[in-house]
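Instructor's aside before we start: the two examples that follow are unrelated to each other. I chose them only because their records fit on one page, so don't look for a connection. First example below.
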Amino acid sequence: MGVSKVLNDVLTRASGKEAPEHDATTAARPATSAVPALPVSGDAVADLREAIRAKLAFAIGKSPETARERDWFAATALALRDRIVAACAASNRTVPNKRVYYLSLEFLIGRLLSDAMNNLGLVETTRAALKDLGVDLGTVEGAEPDAALGNGGLGRLAACFMESMASIGLPAYGYGIRYDHGLFRQSFENGWQREAPETWLAEGNPWEFARPDATYTIGFGGHVTMSMVSEGVIRRNWQPAETVKAVAHDVPVVGWKGRTVNTLRLWKAEAEQPVDLAQFNGGDHVGAVANRMRAEAISRVLYPSDSTSAGQELRLRQEYFFTSASLQDLVRRHVAERGDVRSLPDHAAIQLNDTHPAIAVPELMRILLEDHGLTWDDAWHVTTNTLNYTNHTLLPEALETWPVELMERLLPRHMQIIYLINWMHLEEQAKNGRSDAAHLASVSLIDESHGRRVRMGHLAFHGSRRVNGVSALHTELMRKTVFADLHALDPDKIVNKTNGITFRRWFHNANPGLTRLAVEAVGADVLDNPELLKGLDALAQDASFVERYAAVRRGRKEALAEIIYDRAGVSVDPSALFDVQIKRIHEYKRQLLNVIETVALYQAIKAEPHKDWTPRVKIFGGKAAPSYTQAKLIIKLACDVARAVNDDPEVADRLKVVFLPNYSVSLAEAIIPAADLSEQISTAGMEASGTGNMKFALNGALTVGTLDGANIEIRDHVGAENIFIFGLDAAGVQARAAEPHYARDAIWNSPRLAAALDMIASGRFSPEEPNRFRPLTDDLRHRDQYLLTVDFDDYWRAQREIDAAWNDPAAWWKRAIHNTARMAWFSSDRSMREYAEEIWRVRVA
């Protein structure tokens, strides 16, 4: 396929308004007409049109007259899937020398139709084929449910990495869980978050292939037996008390221009026997399927609450289930292709995405010892030269640990292996003169300080060849804090690999108008090489280009304004500054700081209503974990503040506040290209990287943020003059947190902050329940773990600096263009090439 054809398909996807009435997200794709559409082959259109018609009739069982929008989507997806299979066959004719296996509990892939069309170069062909059938492409795209198989950045990163590996030609499998219900569907009831199951599989998934031939048995509980296999050689064998089947379901991942198609293999849990016939025939119809329900619960829901012991056990069962199935699968594939399991490190690189699959260390050892008869030393060599571990957090509560009692009961053989790994590890310390109790306690895989718990981060560190952080700051803090003592033992193990995003999804697809403008300015090769975006730098002061850039942004803001009205009932002015914070709700991400500044701004406008205030729309989005009470209270406060501000005629259009429900990948694709200001305001030292910050900056939003995570590297690339930095850095946070009464002193020294907290605590935003928000304000006055009070005044300063900058449009758009032009380094293609070269030792073409 020629470059011109691919360019046409990517850049003309928004040739008209494509929104179905029921889904305003798709409406965010603007009309563009700056580049004339290239002709589409009639034969290709006819072929695809007839393929879609055939799928509708023979796979869906509908006629064009009776088909619903969902039916047209399924038929279109199936027709495109056939072309993906053809591309897959073409790209996988030979066994690669080495594969990457990416294990992640989350893959936040969102909708796949637009990705498939773009990367295959079939957007306009599909549009034309559907038009011949009397169907609008935008309507079909809007009928696809979001595959919400992740909670936030971790899962979206995994999805970006999978797409980039395919796009740069790196053979890979992703492994995860096929959750029946992904992250919950969020709604608001009088401002309170309500959760409902996300039913993305209610009508099946046309992208996937069920693989019953790839089914593995996963054990739990039971006991371990010993047998003599030869003189002086004893083998231990696990006899599980319970077994569950892991059944593979494959989703193809199409790379750019369809050159490589990789596989995302998701595991579904099934019972060995679907029903106990004896019980059923005996009249116990519910009890007869109890074992089936217990087994299938493993892949039922993403992140079941772990606030109960049963919830903790289910989470551990999930983690072991998908990790064991994945390792069994890849080892079987390797043996079938290569014969000798000892050569696994030469032909496979396994990446553990966070601590969730850290159980891979003892599980791979178990497979090698029990199923393949390796000696301990050989098995340990294979394991530690095949596994690699990505750490995503420094927060103690997020570094997983499991009670020893639970591990011994659920995975007895694995605890034996962990004990032996730990014993040998600690013996090595003693041999090298590091036998003091404090040192041994810090490097032990078992934490004895608060009940005996297995440290999964330590286990992953010890069992991996390389351990990486995801931004320069995060990696350095790993070396100095959570893994300081382990790092001292192996100084070369920790490396940095700053995160990235796929430009195909977050620029080409999410912002076709801006992509078209970039192609016109610097050439079509920018679609293959984002480094060419740097050519936009020279146009930042070109009046004609700036005008067109601003017009594209205006169109996206108008589309988002429609979504806001449809979903929140709030009318906003697209000419106002769109100030956006969309991410998982967590105290360290400091949505509360943003809300408090909103209250302070509201008070300031009320005090001086005739002042020339900069019109601003505060846009929030994100979900709080169902059991995270404080986070849910922050959402309620934001909603109550929004109600008060938006209903106040004295404030009018100078300040609007919106919390959009049910944040998702598709909603992010509508919001990010319309944002003027990107809020990245986490407490310095606590956000490992962030990827939303990259998506916003690429699309021309200016960042207001702390020196945290990848914000630092974004500043270094876009220029300090094109980003708004405030607050303490990581060292300052550590020093200030050590001071007594820092929150009390900060509030005392900031009348503006004190007044905002007093208004919230007084019940001004909750008159029916005056003390509703006292848990938030009392916590800030007496504890303030995340230093909101300390950073507030500088945050206020930065926001007023932003007001002034917005009032100088020429300077603002110059800064925005510089952001777009200088973000190429944050492509996940670059991240994957670095992983391949320095961690996986795989050659990329």
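Example two begins here.
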Amino acid sequence: MSYTGRSRLTDFARGLGALMVLALLLIGCPVAMYAMGGSPIPDRLPSWEEISATLIRQDTDQSVFLATILLIGWGAWCLFIITVCAEMMNYLAGRSRPALPRPVRPLQHLVRDLVATATLTFSAAASLTTSASAVTHTHTVTGVHAVAGPESGGQEHLSPGQEAPQREPTESAWTPLLADETPVHPETDRRSWRTHIVMRGETLWALARRTYGSGARYPKIFKASRSIDQPDGVPALTDPGLLHPGQHVRLPLSGAPDGASSPPRARSPRATTQAAPSGRGKSSGTPSPAPPGSTSEKSTTSQVPSPVVAPPADHSASPTPPVSNGQESGSPLAISLPSGSRIGLGLAAALCVAVAATRLHRRRRRPLEIDSEFSEHNSEPPIAAPVLKARKAHLDTYAERAAPIPSDPELVRKDLSAAEPDHLVVGVRDGQALTIPLAGLSLGLSGDGAHAAARAIATELLAKAHRYRAEVLMPQTDAQALFPGDDITDLSTVLDGLTITPSLDEAIDCMEAELLRRGRILEMTEQPDVSALRTDDPAEPLPTVLLIASVPAYNGNVHGLATLGHRYGIGVLALGAWPSGTSVKLSSDVTVTDAHGPNAERLAGAHLFHLTTIDAAGMLQTIRTATGTEAEAGSSPPSEDAPSEAEPRTASIVVPAPRPSEEAPRPPVRLDVLGHVHLHTSDGPIDTGLRQRARDLLAYLALHPDGVTRDRASADLWPDDSPESVAPTFNTAVSNIRSVLRAATGLSEPMYVIHSAGKYRIDHEVVEVDLWRVTGALAEAQQATDDATRIKALTLVAGHCAGEFASGLTQEWAEIHREHLRRVTSDALANLARLIQEDDPERALLVLEQAITHDPYSEPLYRRIMRLQARLDRPDAVRRTYRLLTARLNELDAEPEEETRKLVNSSTSTSNRN
């Protein structure tokens, strides 16, 4: 966003100039033409003979020419009047203004620019004069536009055997927090299904009834929708009896084979809602059926019933959908952190991507250790514990729906195709996710919990702001109030999606300049709004802009921007009372205790997500390191009460288990922990019977071949479990391992997991572990006294590093050891290539190619390959390697370092000279 220094007086002058031009065109032009040529309306109609004589005779006095000019002028003025009236009526009606034919389009653009300039600067005049009437006027306009929300397909609750009565359609209780909202058109795919966004109060039964004419066909919708990737912050669809607002479901298109049975046309497309007997619908618990004869509320904010499937009793022959018992099934709606913060899955997903990007940037920059101490590496700043907890919560959602857990590169690649965030889940109300749209947001937060809630919203947007998807604008004082310290200022220097201005006036200048720029783009592209422009041209970077600031009540500029926000992708989150939109008051536990405005009913009683300043600081640091600027961050160490990711003890990685003698038979069981955790016998893999916690314990014991105490293992494996339950959980996992292996091998004597001297360990006599072959080879390489022995040991490492450690586990201990093992393995392969490149450069190239397959983002590895290729006089191979590195780094929004560019340039220059 370009920064402009226009003052309020300049804005007022521009608006006054626009008004004067409009007055000149509307009044001055006709007055001037009337003075020159009189009235354009003749007192009588001329005859044909008079017209012919006038056209035939010579125009010596220029009267015909002047009359023609005046006629054209009056016609142009009439066209101008018609265009102004059409634009004003469309603007007041809130309709999209279609483009006129091309000959008239420049005139239409002129009218729009004049009206837009005059409208914006009226707010500047209000600010200069501190007029209370301007605020009242803006409030009135906002209220008029805010009631036009999208229609919601609500839920019908019928008593047993009761037919659905014909009711007048009522407004849905789900109303976006917009100043001027337009209906949302669901996307359609290439098949016979369309995507529907679940509104508050909707159920699968109601959707099936409206779509198929029978609610009993809800399983078809559930089956088609359960595989949809839901937006960030919205739980996956795992229970047909529980829908959350904002979830995406698939419905058949009109005319599709499965949707041939459509609901009766007499039924209103808007579903009606019943008021709960207590006066307010609740989303937890099983609702009581509506009593016969009950009527729906006739207000625009009708109460919302419990979103459970409630089929009529006369459908007992059909399969009955499950009913929610008030427990949240599937993914949780909120994540509680030890500090007292409470965040949603949307922020957890964004932080998960930030952690993945941070680790890949660290791999990219980490220098290789290719001497005898290659297993040692420089320590890096730890990742804050709240961030790691949020990451685990997000990854656990994959396990809950039996989906493969993505690796760090997969998370980053998926983030490449992520769309601009158009909404945020900001809290929970009655067990349902509370969603707010961003474009056109007009919301004020006040009370004790206002800053904590605004901090959570701002942090989530900042985590999603990279790649030009969102932009947060804050004055300096408000930024420091929300994020004390230098973290937010440091982040603004590296994150394109964050702008901190010295004052509110300069923030308003930026917003107005951006609004005018977007208005010109919309005119040139002939699109009605920013959302349509993104659909038509996804390459156009027009992120949603959100102003977060303390706005004085008399500042009409911000209120004017809020009224125009939806069309231009702009929103306002005010810190304090907000008369122009919806204003809520938050208690110390961030619960809405009072609400005013168009969406007060929807927000009343909601519990909003919130962040402490310490947790927010750790998250901002991770967002910064995700941009690849960790070396310049200069971040302060985390506080003692916020434990963070720590480096593992190297000994637990490189010390191998005792090897059985060569005469001993091969163990009957093989445990693979490089990749997914699997057990194998001579008959094949063991696919059934082993519980997940038993797999976790096997992977953990594989890292500790000398044994580990139960307390330490339990603390690492299940840190969130109560002390009373960890001992039974550990014993159950050990018993499960033994019983499964005894059944698979037919051997009842071995214990498989031995308990000796207070420690538990895997019995290496009957179980071999693939990780131990790698750690054993690494230990031999460290202890080698000559290059031949070291080459032999490192060759074993190259032959056994099949995959990353325990790729399906999300616990912190697993991720720490996974990263550490990747580093020492990459260093080992680089060291092997160094040792053999003089005698066998081709083999050294193969080893380095294996290394970048194992660690595809390590730029030092690519440079070693390029140097070896240049030494072999292969400039084309050097350029191909450079292009591969560029493509990999493009996923991280990064570019190769100057040293790498010089390397490829020098190789190309040498090739050209030869």
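The chain is about 45% helix and 10% strand.
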